[in-house]
Structure formats: C-alpha cells, structure tokens
C-alpha cells in the first residue's frame, strides 16, 4: 500500500497499564485470537502487530498510578475489533468466560449494541472496555 492510501489510517495505539504482566496475559491471548503477533518487547512494554497496525502496552510509572483509569472520564472509552463471524464472537465469548472474564451487558448479549449488531463486550484488567463485533 502506498503512503497516499495509508493516509488517515491508524498507525498504532499505545496503552499505559497498571500491571504490565497481568495486561500482557490478557491482551496477548486475545490479540493472538484476533490474528496479531508479537512485534516488539522491552523491559517496560510489549507490542503486537496485525498488518500495518500495532498495539503497544507500557507499564505506567508508579507516580501516575494514584488515579485509576475509568472509561467514563475524558479519554479512551473502548477499543472495538472485528471478528471473523458470529461464530467467532461466540467462541471468544466462551473462552473469555472460561478465563473468568465478566461479559458486560450479559442480559442483552450478543445484541447489546442493537438487534443487527452481534458483539461481545468485556473489560481488560484495567477496566478498559473491549468489544469484538461480527460482520453484518
């Protein structure tokens, strides 16, 4: 893809996390299920790449851990990823439950986003909301 066609596409997303090891256990599994592979690794962080996009996870410095993340404050609300299919959403939902991850809006799952919107919603260890959505 030439540079003009890449214009405006997200290059990478960097998330600072409260417990790097806990976040890498969570995100490493999930991102591998979505087709990402390990990209870069250093003492205070790690990244995962899919095509031209990569996600970076960095340990937050102790002096900045006094106020925990909350998605309803100013800043990031959630990350949404494409699934391959509705079956893929169902497989990930089952795997998340087996891992002890709470499914958000379970009373409306998998249609919490509306009747034509098939997805699973959950949170990472820092309570960043994650959404995996099937193609329509």
Proportion in helices:
10-25%
Strand order of the largest sheet: 1-4-3-2
- The helix/strand class is alpha/beta
In total, the number of domains comes to 2
Gyration radius, in Å = 16 Å
Q: What's the β-strand tally? A: 7
Give the strand content.
25-35%
What's the CATH topology name of the largest domain? 2,3-Dihydroxybiphenyl 1,2-Dioxygenase, domain 1
Count of runs of 4 or more consecutive helical residues: 3
Q: Any idea what the CATH architecture of the largest domain is?
A: Roll
Account of the 3D structure:
- With 136 residues, the protein is of the alpha/beta class.
- It has two domains: 1-65, 2,3-Dihydroxybiphenyl 1,2-Dioxygenase, domain 1; 68-136, 2,3-Dihydroxybiphenyl 1,2-Dioxygenase, domain 1, CATH 3.10.180.10.
- Helices cover 23% and strands 29% of the residues.
- The protein has a four-stranded mixed β-sheet, covered by helices on one side. A three-stranded mixed β-sheet has the order 5-7-6, covered by helices on one side.
- Strand 2 and strand 3 (45-50) form a beta hairpin.
- The mean pLDDT is 95.
List its traits:
136 residues, 2,3-Dihydroxybiphenyl 1,2-Dioxygenase, domain 1, alpha/beta, 3 helices, three-stranded mixed β-sheet, 7 strands
Concise synopsis of the structure shown:
The protein is of the alpha/beta class and 136 residues long. Helices cover 23% and strands 29% of the residues.
Could you give the topology of this structure?
Blueprint: H1 3-6, E1 12-17, H2 20-33, E2 37-42, E3 45-50, E4 53-59, E5 78-82, H3 86-98, E6 119-123, E7 129-133
Parallel strand pairs: 1-4, 5-7
Antiparallel strand pairs: 2-3, 3-4, 6-7
């Amino acid at each position: 893809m030439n540079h003009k066609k890449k214009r405006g596409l997200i290059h990478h997303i960097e998330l600072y996390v409260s417990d790097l090891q806990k976040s890498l256990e969570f995100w490493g599994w999930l991102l591998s299920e979505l087709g990402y592979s390990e990209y870069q690794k250093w003492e205070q962080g790690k990244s995962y790449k899919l095509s031209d996009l990569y996600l970076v996870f960095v340990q937050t410095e102790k002096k900045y851990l006094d106020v925990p993340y909350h998605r309803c404050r100013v800043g990031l609300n959630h990350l949404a990823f494409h699934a391959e299919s509705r079956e893929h959403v169902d497989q990930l939902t089952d795997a998340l439950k087996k891992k002890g991850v709470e499914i958000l809006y379970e009373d409306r799952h998998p249609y919490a986003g509306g009747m034509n919107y098939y997805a699973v919603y959950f949170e990472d260890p820092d309570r960043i909301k994650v959404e995996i959505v099937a193609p329509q």
